[in-house]
């Protein structure tokens, strides 16, 4: 593997996508979807390690949350996606519910930024993420969270289009199947990401700064 990039703390942001109970807790509505891949990767431990390392290195930490379902969502839309309609049907991340609360280990701390909710897959589309990053002179974004081939990929692609340096952490995310995770990192990721690292490789790169 080529040498990992250098991460200037003042210009690097960790983007933690969708750290909700519905994704990460045993009783979460979406945990069964990702459980096989997540447990195989040691997802929770890797998320803890990467988040702790980012905080210790004084990286900017951004929480990038999905829209929290409310009654009436998408009923008057012309073109809701199957993804959105499925989430509405199952009331995923329902506003005010336990499932829409942060998984306790990954709740934002004081000074960390919670971005406006994204309606689709991209954390940039129709949110304030780009503005908030630019106001902090961020040039490098590092993506962790759920899930690899939807919100992580869409956010990473959008970031690349906007001119950011994009890093994916291959074992700090999950997907509905090993094939989906493979495609996210081995097929699609190299078309837009500047670095695709393990959590160990990323933490080592931070330690070298």
Number of strands: 6
Estimated radius of gyration: 16 Å
Cα distance, first to last residue? 19 Å
- The shape, in one word, is globular
Helix content: 25-40%
Mean pLDDT: 96
Structural class by SSE content = alpha/beta
Q: Topology as H/E string?
A: EHHHEHEHEHEHEH
Low-confidence stretches: none
So how many helices?
Answer: 8
Strands across the major sheet, in which order?
3-2-1-4-5-6
What proportion of the residues form beta strands (DSSP E)?
5-15%
Task: Please summarize the sheet with the most strands.
Answer: 6 strands, parallel
Q: Can you describe this structure?
A:
This protein is an alpha/beta fold. It is 38% helix and 15% strand. It contains 8 helices and 6 strands. It has helices at 21-24, 31-41, 43-56, 82-90, 129-135, 148-161, 178-188, 199-207; strands at 12-17, 60-64, 113-114, 140-145, 165-173, 195-197. The chain has a 6-stranded parallel beta sheet, sandwiched between helices. Helix 3 packs parallel to helix 8. The longest helix has 14 residues, at 43-56. The two termini are 19 Å apart.
């Amino acid at each position: 593997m080529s040498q990992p990039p250098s991460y200037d703390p003042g210009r690097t942001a960790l983007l933690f996508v969708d750290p909700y109970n519905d994704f990460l807790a045993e009783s979460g509505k979406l945990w069964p979807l990702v459980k096989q891949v997540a447990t195989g990767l040691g997802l929770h431990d890797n998320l803890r390690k990467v988040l702790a390392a980012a905080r210790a290195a004084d990286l900017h930490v951004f929480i990038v949350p999905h829209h929290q379902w409310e009654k009436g969502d998408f009923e008057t839309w012309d073109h809701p996606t199957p993804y959105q309609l499925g989430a509405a049907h199952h009331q995923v991340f329902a506003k005010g519910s336990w499932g829409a609360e942060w998984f306790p280990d990954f709740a934002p701390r004081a000074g960390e930024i919670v971005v406006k909710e994204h309606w689709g897959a991209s954390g940039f589309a129709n949110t304030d993420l780009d503005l908030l990053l630019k106001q902090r002179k961020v040039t490098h974004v590092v993506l962790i969270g759920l899930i690899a081939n939807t919100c992580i990929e869409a956010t990473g692609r959008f970031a690349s289009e906007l001119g950011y340096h994009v890093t994916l952490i291959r074992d700090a995310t999950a997907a509905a199947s090993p094939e989906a995770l493979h495609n996210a990192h081995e097929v699609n990721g190299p078309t837009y990401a500047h670095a695709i690292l393990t959590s160990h490789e990323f933490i080592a790169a931070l330690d070298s700064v």
